[in-house]
Amino acid sequence: MEITKICCIGAGYVGGPTMAVIAQKCPHLTITVVDLNQERIDAWNDENTDNIPIFEPGLSAVVAETRGKNLFFSNAVEKAIEEAQIIFISVNTPTKTYGKGKGMAADLKYIELCARQIAKVAKDNKIVVEKSTLPVRTAEAIKSILDNTGNGVQFQILSNPEFLAEGTAISDLLHPDRILIGGDQTAEGQKAIQALTDIYANWVPRDKILTTNVWSSELSKLTANAFLAQRISSINALTELCEKTGADINEVARAIGMDSRIGPKFLKASVGFGGSCFKKDILNLVYIAKSYGLNETAAYWEQVIIMNDHQKKRFADKIVKTLYNTVAGKKISFLGWAFKKNTNDTRESAAIYIADDLINEQAAVCVYDPKVNQKKILSDLDYLETRSSQENAANVQSFDNPFEACQGAHAVAVLTEWEEFAHYDWKKIYDAMQKPAFVFDGRNILNKKEMQKIGFVYHGIGS
Ligand code: NAD
Ligand code: UGA
After folding, report:
1. What is the pLDDT, as a whole number, of residue 1?
2. Residues whose CB is less than 8 angstroms from the CB of residue 85 and which lie 6 or more positions away in sequence, other chains included
3. Which of 80, 146, 274, 415 could form a disulfide with 351 if both were Cys (CB 3.0 to 4.6 A apart)?
């Protein structure tokens, strides 16, 4: 089968950037990214590429270079499926909020919808690629739907999980550590693997393109996220002990990270990891293990989430305790709302949970984030359903300027590791705050000694 056209279902944080990079590196291919969400598609098609729906360093330039040439964003889902030889499924796979597996299992309803739509529309053989993160053995369900509801055409299903991290998506896509492709061990399966390998080989060295069976590929994605999150929970699990004993977590991380077996990456202590995937993927892993009766395996991985929840809670508690056990009526200013720097994504951000706890204590929360606006902040809080939208709106205010956000505050909490925060004129912020002026550095990005010299009462994480 000659590959000329690709369709990607899902124009989100993965579908958009991934397809933009494929389009840039494969000018001989035509790529259409489709989505049911008209607003999102319109934003991807905005004349000014600075207004595309996702902020990612370097992304708008790649979109400007390719869009309208060989990269298209559309809501004509069926047409794009029909014309393509390869269809990537890149839709969301959130945690189920109902029924069996509620709060743990992955909700596969969007995946199933895609499979049914592909089956209905396809009039010739297609390669269907799982790009979304899926429970191990999902390909079996997709295949069953395709084979039983299709028009008699052949489908090959590949698992090709995405490992990009937000904030560095373009560079991760351009220089991936590896590309993982799982496929059937049959001759047809191997041909499909080859077709996808040939696409990536346009810019990724062949020795970095790893092929496995489908189940190993599906499980490797969940495992990679579980290991990464586990490292953060492991270092965070020691922060409380550092605070009790006078050890400094930054020094401990440096000391252990120099052991080449441990390595220095992903050892930054923090207020807790956020993002759309770590929590949902680990919960999914836990659910799968439990469903096979593997209770010790499930409990082992669940602890990573328990530790992360504890870290967020303990941060909010520490603010209250330090501010003389009451924050009622006090202004607490947040620097950062996004779940990490260089993204406008706020899903599962620690800031949401800390704000929620502080509002429960009747604090007035003021927020500055360079990429997140008031509407998003309020919708994140409303999503928790702790209180009414009106109450959230009455207790949280966002500012376009960090100095205004901190004006008159009793405490500042640094919740995202945006680099600009470390370069502010902190003396100016100090002068405009209530005294004593507290700073809670949830990312350890400020210089403790300098902050203390200015006059701040400084609290880092484990330092
Ligand atoms: P997202 O929510 O940003 O985007 C998903 C898009 O799919 C949405 O715009 C939604 O409207 C669309 N969609 C859902 N059902 C559809 C349908 N039937 N037809 C057309 N469009 C449909 O999600 P995301 O962050 O891009 O994540 C997608 C998948 O990739 C998830 O499984 C996630 O676990 C995985 N993943 C995400 C990241 C990341 O950094 N965000 C990294 C690696 C893997
Ligand atoms: C993560 C993985 O890194 C990607 O490989 C994966 O593809 C993706 O999940 C996914 O499947 O969605 P992402 O969540 O975008 O990527 O960002 P990370 O850089 O992993 O950061 C996650 C969270 O951990 C952030 O809140 C970050 O601030 C926090 N973190 C990270 C720490 O607290 N300490 C660290 O040392 C590293």
Report:
1. 81
2. 1, 2, 3, 4, 5, 6, 125, 126, 127, 195
3. 415
Neighbouring residues of 373: CB distance < 8 A, sequence distance ≥ 6 = 398
Q: Is 100 a catalytic residue?
A: no
* Same domain, residue pair 264 and 170: no
Could you tell me the distance, in angstroms and rounded to a whole number, from the CA of residue 223 to the centre of ligand 2? 14
Residues of the chain falling short of pLDDT 50:
none
Range of the domain at 204: 5-212
What per-residue confidence (pLDDT) applies to 139?
92
Residue whose Cα lies nearest atom 27 of ligand 1: it is 92
pLDDT in tens, 316-348: 999 999 999 999 999 999 999 999 999 999 999
Residue whose Cα lies nearest atom 37 of ligand 1: it is: 14
Q: Is residue 353 part of a domain?
A: yes
The residues pairing with 31 across neighbouring beta strands, listed in sequence order, are: 6, 71
Together in a domain, 55 and 142? yes
Question: Catalytic one among 56, 162, 166, 348?
Answer: 162
Res 199: pLDDT: 98
- The contacts of residue 369 (CB under 8 Å, 6+ apart) are 334, 335, 336, 337, 338, 377, 398, 416, 418
Asked if residue 125 and residue 74 are part of one domain, the reply reads yes
CB atoms within 10 A of CB 103: 10
173 shares its domain with 305: no
Q: Is the peptide bond before 94 cis (omega within 30 degrees of 0)?
A: no
Distance CA 438, CA 434 (A): 9
Total domain count for the chain? Answer: 2
